Amino acid sequence: MAKKRLLTAIVTGLALVMAVSAASAAGLSDGVLKVGVMTDMSGAYSDLCGPGSVVAAQMAIDDFGGKVLGKKIELVSVDHQNKPDIAANKAREWFDTEKVDVITDLPTSSAALAVMEVANQKNKITLISTGASTKITNDNCNATNVHWTYDTYALAVGTGKAVVANGGDTWFFITADYAFGHSLENDTAAVVKASGGKVVGDVKAPFPNTDFSSFLMQAQASGAKIIGLANAGADTINSIKQAKEFGITQNQTLAGLLIFITDINSLGLDTAQGMVLTTGFYWDRNDETRAWSKRFRERHKNMPTMGQAGVYSSLMHYFSAVEKAGTDDSAAVMAAMKSMPINDMFAKNGYIRDDGRMVHDMYLVQVKKPAESKGPWDYYKVLRTIPGDEAYMSLDSSTCKLVKK
Asked: Is residue 404 part of a domain?
């Protein structure tokens, strides 16, 4: 593995030299570097990304000094309403008319995949923080995209394996009916089966949704020990609250497969206590995460989610790559990004693979009991650090056309 990574670094370094030499002109093509945050500002995912992701992006710009290569960094943002057509159309407008250089955040995998395609056509960079599907770095991978914060495979490896190991060996899935939900269910089901468990059924729920009663009744009737919630945001919160109201949690256990700290804050520790989940960032993990998160909370009402922390981290790395490349040419910047390790408040010794996956440690955590919490947002106990090379799908299993086997 070490030899393979060294060879990759050498090849990437050579690619960087070639890309910089081939760039049409040094410096910024339009005299400004423009960042676009495309996110859910008002829907089911707005708490876990939304306005907080815009705050994180502005923090990155401010912390980098507001300029790159001596030119101003500008920020624009938009609500894509979790709709692929709106997201794709706005991406075209941003690239063609507003001269946006990079788009970040991109919750809702179907929307992220649509924007990735447009960006690749326009030779522009996307930095996906909140989108989750493994399609992003597999069948739909491209040379101008980086998948930064987490994916459904990492969530399955963390939460799915831990739940089965603790005796949860029969599963029924309630799944958001679009690319993200399907990917999360498929990846988790594979982990459950590989760990000796069994999937007894599933049901697809429209996204977004407020009434999960019929889906929960089907899960209850299945007799499965574990009800896997392959959804996120407001859908997950509603699923958990309604399961408790119907008394389902007295005999069956919920496995929230994508839970954000804002979800726990909304549910409260009385309801969420004991839940096991996987995350790519926790504000209270060390002095560096605490210091950055405190600054974030001073600007925003909540502590940061992993998606919001990922927006900041990905942009700081992108700005550094533009400086290193000496240009905003996408090929040169991508080569620079892949040549540099990621060492910041989000990740240590992270790196970007050929398929665009940013590999970094993930964390298996358990939600504290109310009596264990020492104050606001003190919600998690870290059970295990999952090394990046274990957390993410290996390149040997990749279907990405960019991966050389």
From this structure: no
